[in-house]
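Box 3.1 — From sequence to structure: mannose-6-phosphate isomerase
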Amino acid sequence: MFVAIENTPRPYAWGSTTAIAELQGREPSGEPEAELWLGAHPGSPSRIFGGSGVGFPDLATWIAHEPDSAGLSSGRLPFLLKLLAAETPLSLQAHPSPEQAEAGFARENAAGVPLDAPHRNYKDAFHKPELVVALSDTYDALCGFRPVADAVAEIDALIDVAEGNGQGLAAAELRGLRERLEGDDAEVLRSVIEYLLGSEVSALVSAVTDVAASAPLTPAVDTVRLLAEHYAGDPGIVVSLFVNRVTLRRGEALYLPAGNIHAYLHGFGVELMAASDNVLRGGLTPKHVDVAELLTVLNFEPVPVPYLEPEHVGDGVELFAPDVPDFELYRMDVHDDDASIDIQKAAIAVVTRGEVDVTGAQGAATMTAGQAMYVTPDETALTVSGDGEVFVATSRQ
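Predicted structure (token representation):
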């Protein structure tokens, strides 16, 4: 069965005012439209079109009352698909492992913290690994700690600039930071991040911001300038020196597992994650920040930029499949030839370019850019024809 779904974009302040509206071919609302949630997460379940024959207002209600007809005998859709449009940087954050999420959720329940409390960290008992595929020409992000030596080189260069400009106080602050960077990478990163996020470091933040304003442009300097523009005085500005900066091109992807420190900076993309809303924030946001809890989930080992390379599984078909059971993502790009995939699991499809016909074992639908469908497992396979691009999310198990 093909079930047409829709939702209202989340109006987070960092969202683009145009990207999602332009994809859907409608007039912008005039307000930020940050995320379009396509799934059954209770925070914003997708609405079901009245003519679908399902008889329920949204996916969450349908799955809760008739899990078998929705093709989910477990009673839960394990993934959440989003369109994410960032005009300005998001918070510096990480997500918990399954064990950390279960323990944190139980702990806050036992403490009587309401589920909708703004200071609640764990909204559910599930982990939240995620991937993002760029739809815009470029998509900028911070993701994962980089080797300390790379940060040292950046800081040494800033010291040279400060001394050359006669910024003696700023140079002294930077040398003080530099002195903290001796030893094993993971131990140094744990110590310095705890210091930066848990101490009074306003003078250091000002020093980094002021010196970067006249420093030669590097990706790290560019990040400092961008973050200072939107979050002046936030210690996350200095933390960014220790995190990989990446610019994706359209169609490129990142995978962010549990514990990976990250912040999306700017761009429009398709995001797929485990169906959870557990976010531990350390800065760059007016939302709740819990440094102590963030430090318990962070992975302090330096990592390369966590690109996720797709597997080519057929003509016009790429598969993004990280090693988690909750989700995988197909990208189907068609022009003159059809593209097909076998699924046999509940899925959600969203069109990100053009107009296509989607055909399964029993049903069919014509979809245009910005439209989405929930697909039940009895369709078993999907064939896409026309001229367009479709992303299909499903679980791996």
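Summary of the box: The chain has a mean pLDDT of 96.
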